[in-house]
Every structure is written in C-alpha cells, then in structure tokens.
Design goal:
128 residues; alpha+beta; 5-stranded antiparallel sheet
C-alpha cells in the first residue's frame, strides 16, 4: 500500500524528465509547451506522496504498552494506542495472543493466533 504512491510519483517524475529532455532540440513553441507540462507533472508528483503519507497513518503516534503474560506464560495481552491528531480519533485496542516457544520463535516471531479483544475509539461530532 505504501509503494503505490511512490510508484505513481516516480512515474510522474520520469515522464516529466523525459518531456524536458526530449524537447531540447525542438522548435521554441514545442519546447515551451513540453517544459511547462514537465513542470506541472513535477509539481503534481508531490500530491500522491502527500496523500500516501496522510492515509498510510505515517503521521500517527503508535504507543505499545508492555505485554502482560498469564500465570503459565503462554497467553499474553497488550494494549496498543494510536493517536492520529486532528485527522482521526484516538484508538485503544487490546490484543490477545499465544506465545510461541522453541525453534519457531526465530522463524515466525513470538506471537501466534493473535486476536483483537476489543477496540475503543472516540467519535468526534462536529457542530456546524
């Protein structure tokens, strides 16, 4: 999901560069038209990057609290909070999972069968 805005921006920049250099030896009207179009494409390449940054939650603060294990050490719970500032509400979630032991910890990580117990999010109602 994060690669799509980068791909679109890269294509726009590549097209702008190709337009700029392909019009080097052209007549003046074609050169001006191609270079204006290249400038517009270059500035338009910033839009997918900006939208990708906003909608990929890159600007959100993610706070993960220390996991708490059960008495036997296998099931665990963790609270994770996300705060995206003014563009989204505040979210808190509790995740439950089984801890892996042995050889598979190095291949697949410590968490197995992860589920979300519940999620709490504030809804903001604007009065216009």
């Amino acid at each position: 999901m994060v690669l799509l805005p980068l791909l679109v921006a890269g294509l726009l920049v590549g097209t702008a560069v190709a337009l700029w250099y392909s019009s080097r030896n052209s007549r003046r009207l074609w050169k001006i038209t191609a270079r204006i179009a290249a400038g517009v494409l270059l500035f338009a390449s910033a839009l997918p990057l900006l939208l990708g940054f906003i909608f990929s939650h890159a600007m959100c603060g993610r706070y993960e609290f220390t996991p708490i294990s059960s008495g036997d050490g296998k099931p665990a719970a963790q609270v994770i909070e996300e705060d995206c500032g003014a563009v989204d509400s505040f979210h808190s979630s509790v995740y439950l999972w089984q801890r892996r032991n042995g050889f598979f910890v190095h291949l697949f990580g410590k968490r197995a069968h992860s589920t979300t117990a519940f999620t709490v999010g504030e809804s903001i109602n604007f009065l216009w």
